[in-house]
């Protein structure tokens, strides 16, 4: 991989950046005033956007929605960042952490011209300006966050706590990019944000870009003060210094002075970033983690807004958080204050005779891709390059016959990823909470260390500043880094223990929502999919106990709207390879792959696995007694590795004890093949569904997750009530592997009894077989307590070994 060597700025450039002249300040300040004006106008105005006449009640929207308090600070920072870009050609994206800064960033894109290029009906004239105002936070319009329709955004901000992780992910393997991440002081109170400062411990300045955090302390959140704003500034400075930052502070509300002070602070931060990168890329870096710059900006909440409303202080308090004048319609005093507020920005200087930004305002802009609202990095599909993918078949496991080979399936995935790492050293990473080896993916360490910018000791293994495997014991960090990485055009995988995917589950859902909305925007190019591997699953976390036993993420992902969510349950190594290859090549999906890391029986050759995964589900004829000449007596279905083994064992028991009982065994690898085609694009058509499950025979379905998921997915299928689902029912403890399936009533013996109880006919010997199954369950219960392990006939079972 090559990176542009960053030159240390010249003294003349630094002087010009840090000390703007009055002539430079004039367009910058006009741009900021124009942004503030448009922010207020978006919140309040449904007519008369240029104040060509006195405001009247009918000019005001019927519902006032939006957030003013954080917006002037966001636009102030944006204006100064744009000035820096104009003087340096620095590639930069802007991530607005405060939850509801939407109007300020929409206004920024509009003033830069990007918004009108993407949405021509929101033109830079009076008519377009009116549409800009009317659409904001309104039916048929746009949300109040810095959301998917906002040009330049990769971070919505509404789910507080993730601005830094998205920023750090965006700059990994992106050497020329600075991600400017504004952290709101309300956001700074969240656990994920507090844990994400440590991103500097995982950046390599020779290979990665830089994150410039700006902690915007405006003093208040929705209804009260914020913690960091009320702390002694020295204490805050020590806190952030302790995280590894060089802290730069700017404070005030005197506008001319603030322009000069912030310009100097931003210059100092940018120069420090360039010095760090120049040193690392020039070979002078000794490997010590640099102290990256961070700016603390203290301004009043609702800066430049009404000082007082109804006799109560507003600017600088929580009262300015949302809509400071909530009673404008029908309250003439409030209407007068609003007009005075809007006119304080001197709109006659900001907009020309046609209603577009004036020449003074436009002078503050940069052009083309340097505009933060037009950065290709914030529309990652524009810069995405396909992975160089090896042929996954070369990693295939030799399976002479089903259930005769036993191995750890995820090791094969590790071998595949090892070679993807080797061939894609600038666009592929694994993100994992300190569990790469535990999850049997350690083959990647043959070609890459773990990345670590802190002290490395001689006894450390596979740990260096040059590594590109990302391990930090935080699901939030790993998930968020991958989101930022994929949204800016690179590929990867987040691997975690299944139960702890719920720690970051809301991030998964929010990312899916982002992709769902992006799908409706022609200008948003598809990005690499968010790939999640869940291993150390509920069924095999018998040693860790109940806290580690939970398949809840599946339930969340299958409820996502549209075609974004994909869930795969490969039952063996070869199907895992096929699924992984598909997921790594895919675009704009959330792909969840679930398979355990423990040794497991292998079922399919690589060719069989590819065919099976392509269809999404299929009949395993060798496992049942159904020859296709007539309907089966029961369909035994399964989705998930452990429950597949239990289903195959149940089918063998039925085959041995009741050979004339007709069973059909169906394995499902693509969970989204179960819904109707109109409900999900992966849904199988009626013909295939009936071919597998018939339209009237009862189905005993053994499922990896919560039983309700299958009922939800087959809703609307022929006689959906005939599906009898067994799955995880929150029964767990520290116990044996087989006791987990027994406790949740999805063991082979429970499945046999279910098959008999729900079959179309009761064959000879059914009562005796049910009694035998109950006897086996009783035997199991006594055996595990006495011997502390499973019965040999279960523990060592393989197909055709005679143990049933």
From TrEMBL:
Cofactor(s) this protein requires: thiamine diphosphate
Listed name of the protein: Phosphoketolase
Residues covered by the Xylulose 5-phosphate/Fructose 6-phosphate phosphoketolase C-terminal domain: 597-798
Family membership noted in the UniProt record: Belongs to the XFP family.
Record domain Xylulose 5-phosphate/Fructose 6-phosphate phosphoketolase N-terminal: where: 21-382
Entries under InterPro entries matching the protein: THDP-binding, Transketo_C/PFOR_II, Xul5P/Fru6P_PKetolase, Xul5P/Fru6P_PKetolase_C, Xul5P/Fru6P_PKetolase_CS, Xul5P/Fru6P_PKetolase_N, Xul5P/Fru6P_PKetolase_ThDP_BS
PANTHER family: PHOSPHOKETOLASE-RELATED
UniProt keywords, alphabetically: Lyase, Thiamine pyrophosphate
């Amino acid at each position: 991989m090559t990176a542009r060597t960053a030159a240390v700025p010249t003294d003349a450039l630094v002087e010009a950046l840090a000390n703007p002249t009055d002539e430079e300040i004039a367009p910058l300040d006009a741009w900021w005033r124009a942004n503030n004006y448009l922010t207020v106008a978006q919140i309040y105005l449904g007519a008369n956007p240029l104040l060509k006449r006195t405001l009247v009640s009918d000019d005001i929207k019927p519902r006032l929605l939006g957030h003013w308090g954080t917006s002037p600070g966001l636009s102030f920072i944006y204006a100064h960042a744009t000035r820096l870009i104009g003087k340096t050609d620095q590639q930069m994206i802007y991530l607005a952490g405060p939850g509801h800064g939407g109007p300020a960033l929409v206004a920024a894109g509009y003033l830069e011209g990007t918004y009108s290029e993407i949405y021509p009906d929101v033109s830079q004239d009076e008519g377009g300006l009116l549409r800009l105002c009317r659409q904001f936070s309104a039916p048929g319009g746009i949300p109040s966050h810095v959301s998917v329709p906002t040009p330049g955004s990769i971070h919505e901000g509404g789910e507080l706590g993730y601005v830094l992780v998205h920023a750090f992910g965006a700059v990994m393997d992106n050497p020329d990019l600075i991600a400017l991440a504004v952290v709101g002081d309300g956001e700074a109170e969240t656990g994920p944000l507090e844990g994400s400062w440590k991103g500097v411990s995982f950046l390599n300045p020779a290979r990665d870009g830089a994150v410039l955090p700006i902690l915007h302390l405006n003093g208040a959140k929705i209804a009260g003060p914020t913690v960091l704003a009320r702390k002694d500034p020295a204490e805050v400075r020590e806190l952030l210094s302790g995280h590894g930052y060089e802290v730069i502070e700017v404070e005030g509300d005197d506008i001319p002075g603030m322009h000069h002070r912030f310009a100097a602070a931003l210059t100092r931060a940018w120069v420090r970033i360039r010095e760090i990168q120049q040193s690392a890329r020039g070979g002078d870096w000794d490997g010590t983690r640099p102290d990256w710059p961070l700016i603390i900006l203290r301004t009043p909440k609702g800066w430049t807004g009404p000082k007082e409303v109804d006799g109560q202080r507003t600017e600088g308090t929580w009262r300015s958080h949302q809509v400071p004048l909530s009673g404008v319609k029908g309250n003439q005093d409030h209407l007068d204050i609003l007009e005075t507020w809007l006119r304080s920005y001197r709109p006659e200087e900001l907009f020309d005779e046609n209603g577009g930004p004036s020449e003074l305002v436009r002078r503050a802009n940069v052009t083309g891709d340097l505009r933060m609202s037009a950065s290709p990095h914030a529309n990652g599909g524009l810069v995405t390059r396909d992975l160089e993918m090896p042929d996954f078949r070369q990693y295939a496991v030799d399976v002479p016959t089903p259930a005769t080979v036993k191995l750890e399936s995820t090791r094969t995935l590790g071998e595949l990823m090892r070679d993807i790492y080797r061939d894609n050293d600038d666009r592929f990473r694994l993100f994992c909470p300190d569990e790469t080896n535990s999850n049997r993916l350690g083959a990647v360490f043959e070609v890459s260390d773990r990345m670590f910018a802190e002290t490395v000791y001689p006894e450390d293994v596979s740990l260096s500043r040059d590594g590109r495997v990302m391990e930090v014991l935080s699901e939030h960090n790993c998930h968020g880094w991958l989101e930022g990485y994929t949204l800016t055009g690179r590929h990867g995988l987040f691997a975690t223990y299944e139960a702890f995917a719920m720690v970051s589950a809301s991030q998964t859902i929010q990312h899916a929502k982002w992709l769902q909305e992006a799908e409706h925007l022609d200008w948003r190019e598809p990005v690499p999919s968010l790939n999640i591997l869940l291993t150390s699953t509920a069924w095999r976390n018998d040693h860790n106990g109940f806290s580690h036993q939970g398949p809840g993420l599946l339930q969340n992902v299958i409820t996502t709207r549209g075609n974004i969510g994909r869930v795969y349950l490969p039952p063996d190594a070869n199907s895992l390879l096929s699924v992984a290859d598909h997921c790594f090549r895919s675009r704009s999906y959330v792909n969840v792959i679930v398979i355990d890391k423990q040794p497991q029986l292998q079922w399919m050759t690589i060719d069989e696995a590819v065919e099976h995964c392509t269809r999404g589900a299929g009949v395993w004829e060798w496992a049942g007694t159904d020859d296709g000449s007539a309907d089966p007596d029961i369909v035994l279905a399964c989705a998930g590795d452990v429950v597949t083994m239990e289903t195959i064992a149940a089918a063998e028991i039925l085959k041995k004890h009741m050979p004339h009982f007709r069973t059909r065994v169906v394995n499902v690898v693509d969970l989204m093949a179960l819904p109707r085609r109109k409900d999900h694009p992966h849904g199988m058509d009626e013909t295939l569904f009936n071919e597998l499950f018939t339209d009237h025979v009862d189905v005993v379905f053994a499922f990896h997750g919560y039983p309700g998921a299958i009922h939800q997915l087959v809703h609307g299928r022929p006689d959906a009530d005939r599906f009898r689902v067994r799955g995880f029912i929150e029964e767990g403890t520290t116990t044996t592997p087989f006791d987990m399936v027994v406790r949740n009533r999805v063991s082979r013996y429970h499945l046999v009894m279910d098959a008999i109880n729900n079959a179309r006919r009761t064959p000879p010997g059914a009562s005796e077989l049910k009694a035998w199954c109950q006897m086996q369950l009783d035997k199991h219960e006594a055996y595990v307590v006495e011997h502390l392990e499973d019965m040999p006939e279960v523990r060592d079972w393989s197909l055709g070994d005679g143990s049933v």
